[in-house]
Amino acid sequence: MIVDVQQGTFAVSPPIHRGEEIVRRIAGLLARARAEGRPVVHVQHDGGPGDVLGKGSAGWPHHPLVAPRPGEIVVEKRHSSSFHDTDLHQRLTDAGIDRLVIAGMQTEMCVDSACRGAVALGYRVVLVADGHTTWDTPVIDVERIVAHHNRLLGQGFADVVAAADVTF
Fold first, then answer.
1. Mind telling me which PANTHER family this protein's record contains (predicted)?
2. pLDDT (tens digit, 9 = 90+) per residue, 134-160?
3. What is the pLDDT of residue 92?
4. Which residue range is the domain that position 73 belongs to?
């Protein structure tokens, strides 16, 4: 499940931390999942009119390295959680999916919410430890945000696994 890897997150200043590196890593995971015939889910955030990720804006489309292919699940959302006010849970249930490998953007927001929401609905979750990123905040830098969420989510919410070690 690829969360909010959209062109707008690369177009702002400052750009998302190590964004190009992370998107290439996610693209590698995506290629492996596709090669193994695994279902792929793309989540796309609509920040509303005027937002860099607003539907129809230049930032709305998926990053080209991880763009959906025909037949892959695409879910549009307006909240941090991929499950809030979307049909994601139903689509996953219909497809017989009970385990999610999650990567994407923004660590402390939509990636965190995706992991927690999935666990609350009974999914087994793998968080790609080196497959999510965010921006520095005035309070904490991005490296600490990512490390903190890997540690926190690894304590009962997800198996936290490096991209090279992910199995599908």
1. ISOCHORISMATASE, PEROXYUREIDOACRYLATE/UREIDOACRYLATE AMIDOHYDROLASE-RELATED
2. 999 999 999 999 999 999 999 999 999
3. 98
4. 2-165
Q: 110: which DSSP letter?
A: I
Is the pTM above the cut of 0.90?
yes
User: What's the CATH code of the domain at 68?
Assistant: 3.40.50.850
CA–CA gap between residue 118 and residue 82 (Å, rounded): 9
Q: Which residues, listed in sequence order, are joined to residue 150 by a DSSP beta bridge? A: none
Q: Are strands 124-133 and 73-77 parallel, antiparallel or unpaired?
A: unpaired
- The answer for 68, left when phi > 0, alpha when psi is -120 to 50, beta otherwise, is beta
Q: Above pLDDT 70, what percent of the chain? A: 100
Q: How many domains does the structure of the chain reveal? A: 1
- And the tokens for 142? 């991005």
Q: How does pLDDT run across 40-51, given as a tens digit for each residue?
A: 999 999 999 999
Q: How far apart are CA 31 and CA 52, in angstroms?
A: 27
Residue 44, φ and ψ in degrees, nearest 5: -130, 120
Tokens 């490998």 locate to 101
Cβ neighbors of 157 (< 8 A, separation 6 or more) are 115, 116, 119, 125, 127
